[in-house]
Design brief:
By secondary structure, the chain is of the alpha+beta class. It is built from 6 helices and 10 strands, in the order H-H-H-H-E-E-E-E-H-H-E-E-E-E-E-E.
C-alpha cells in the first residue's frame, strides 16, 4: 500500500492510519509500495533516457555560455547582476528547445550560501570581480515523455581562487565522487542499494572534512517528467529514504556546503542500468576561473 513506516518517506505515505488498521485487522501484513511505484512511475525506457541525455548536453552548453558572459562582462567592467545572467540563460533555454518549471539559478557570494535562493527582477545582487558564482540549471525537451536533467557548476570571477573556496569545493567533490562510486559498485555487483545509503556515503565525507554543520539538504533527488521525480531520493537528511535504486531510475548527486558569505555545490546526474550505473554528463573537477 502507499504507506511508509513512521512516515519515513512522506512521498509514498498516503493511506490514512484508519485504513491501515482496518487491513491489518484482517491478518494481512501491510508493506510499502514505494519500490513498486518506482517501477511504473520512475523507471526510464530508452526513449526517456535519450531525452535526458539530449537535455543534459543542452544544459551544459547554456552553462558554458553563461560562464563566458560572466567572464566577458566582469572583465570589461560591464555592470552585471545575477538576474541579468539568469535572463540570458532563460533565452538560451528557448533557443535550445528546453522548458523548465522556473528560470535557472545564478547565485554570487553570500547568495550562493542559500541553497533556496533564486534571483528576481526585484531581488538580485551585482556580480563583480573576484567573486564566487554558482549556476544551477534544470530543464527538459519540449516533447511528451521527456525527462529532466539538472546540473550545478561553480565559477570564480578572478584568477586566484581563495583557499577557503577551493577547500570547500574539494570536500564537496570528494563527497560527490564517493556517492558515485558507491552507486557504481552496487550496480556492477548486482547489490541492493537504498537512497539513504547514498546520502550517508556523501555526508560522511563532508563530516570527516569538518563540514558536518554546513550540510543543509539531502545529497540528491529523483528525476522524471518533473524535476523532482517520484522515485528514490538520495536522502538520509530530510527523510530516511529506504527505497531501492532500481534499474532505469535517474537521479541527481548534489552535495553542498553553505556559509553566511558563500556556498559550494556540485551536481551531476546518474542512471542505473542492468549491470552498471553512469554519470550522464561532464563532472566538474575544480572551480572554473572566469578571468
Amino acid at each position: 500500500m502507499e504507506y511508509s513506516p513512521k512516515c519515513a518517506i512522506p512521498y509514498v505515505s498516503r493511506v490514512d492510519a484508519g485504513t491501515i488498521e482496518l487491513v491489518r485487522a484482517t491478518g494481512v501484513e501491510v508493506v510499502s509500495s514505494g519500490d513498486l511505484i518506482q517501477r511504473f512511475a520512475s523507471a526510464w525506457d530508452e526513449r526517456a533516457i535519450a531525452t535526458h541525455e539530449e537535455a543534459s548536453e543542452k544544459l551544459h552548453r547554456v552553462k558554458d555560455r553563461a560562464f563566458e558572459a560572466i567572464a566577458r562582462r566582469t572583465g570589461t567592467h560591464v555592470p552585471t547582476t545575477e538576474y541579468d545572467i539568469q535572463q540570458l540563460m532563460a533565452g538560451w533555454f528557448r533557443d535550445e528547445g528546453l522548458i523548465s518549471d522556473s528560470d535557472p539559478n545564478v547565485s554570487a557570494e553570500e547568495n550562493a550560501g542559500n541553497p533556496h535562493y533564486l534571483p528576481t527582477a526585484s531581488a538580485s545582487r551585482a556580480i563583480r570581480s573576484d567573486e564566487l558564482v554558482l549556476l544551477d540549471l534544470w530543464g527538459k525537451l519540449d516533447r511528451p515523455g521527456a525527462v529532466y536533467a539538472d546540473i550545478t557548476w561553480m565559477g570564480y570571477t578572478g584568477h586566484l581562487i581563495p583557499d577557503r573556496y577551493t577547500h570547500a569545493f574539494a570536500a564537496v567533490a570528494a563527497a560527490r565522487d564517493a556517492a558515485i562510486a558507491l552507486v557504481q559498485r552496487a550496480a556492477a555487483g548486482g547489490q541492493e542499494l537504498r537512497g539513504w545509503q547514498v546520502d550517508r556515503a556523501a555526508s560522511s565525507v563532508l563530516r570527516s572534512a569538518g563540514f558536518g554543520d554546513r550540510i543543509m539538504h539531502r545529497t540528491g533527488h529523483s528525476l522524471g517528467e518533473s524535476v523532482h521525480g517520484n522515485g528514490v531520493n538520495m536522502d538520509d537528511y530530510e527523510t530516511h529514504d529506504d527505497r531501492r535504486l532500481l534499474v532505469g531510475t535517474g537521479f541527481t548527486i548534489e552535495p553542498g556546503v553553505y556559509f553566511d558569505d558563500f556556498g559550494v555545490r556540485s551536481e551531476i546526474n546518474m542512471i542505473v542500468g542492468p549491470r552498471d550505473a553512469r554519470v550522464t554528463g561532464p563532472v566538474q573537477s575544480a572551480i572554473v576561473a572566469l578571468a
